[in-house]
User: Fold Transport permease protein from Streptomyces spirodelae.
Amino acid sequence: MRVLRRMPAFLVIGLVQPVIWLLLFGQLFSSVVDLPGFTHAGGGFLEFLTPGVVMMTALFASAWAGTTYLQDIDRGVMDRMLTSPASRGAMMIATMTYQAIQTLIQSVIIVIIAVAAGARFLGGVAGVGITLLAAVLLTLTFSALSNAVALLTRQQATLIAISQFTTLPLMFLSSAVMDLGLAPGWVGGVADYNPVEWAVVAARDSMGTHTDWTTVWVHLGRLAMAALVMGLLSTRAFRTYRKQA
Assistant:
């Protein structure tokens, strides 16, 4: 957290691409809501896109979380930490919490920019709060996965390849940027098992006019379970790392 405070440029750099998606694509595809089959036509495309951009930001940032562990491994910091009385769980939770706080700040900024650009979220403060919670849970899930990959592979190139292989398909196999009513049926079937889609659905439904709270809490529950499972599995990756040392 001290590093983040001393170098806030990391937050700004992470916002460049999401802001481009939000403002450029939000205007470029504004007429998409008029297409037959677009099931979220009640609001403008900017209102539709904002929850997706928030989750994309959380996904892309957390997918690179393991680079911190790789730096610690290269510098010998990881081995010193593992020979200390420090809890393995605490080490994992610390990096996950850092990523979650960073995502929280970026998500608030994205929502503010969307409102300044003309978006109106009828779900109010509660809807924004659910959106931030979904983004945090998504971040916890994928930052834990990234940390586990870093511990198991110890290779920057491998982490980059796996991150690229997972983030882009997960983004496009969800309703982050396009209504699934306009997508092939198989995409919707895959999206049902996609954590990114769970986060987007919970956020978008809570920020809309008529919120189905059962749907929101079910998807948040799935995200919370995924974050818990990935946190436990990534913590166990320390054992494999020690055996390979």
Q: What stands out?
A: The first helix runs from residue 2 to 6.
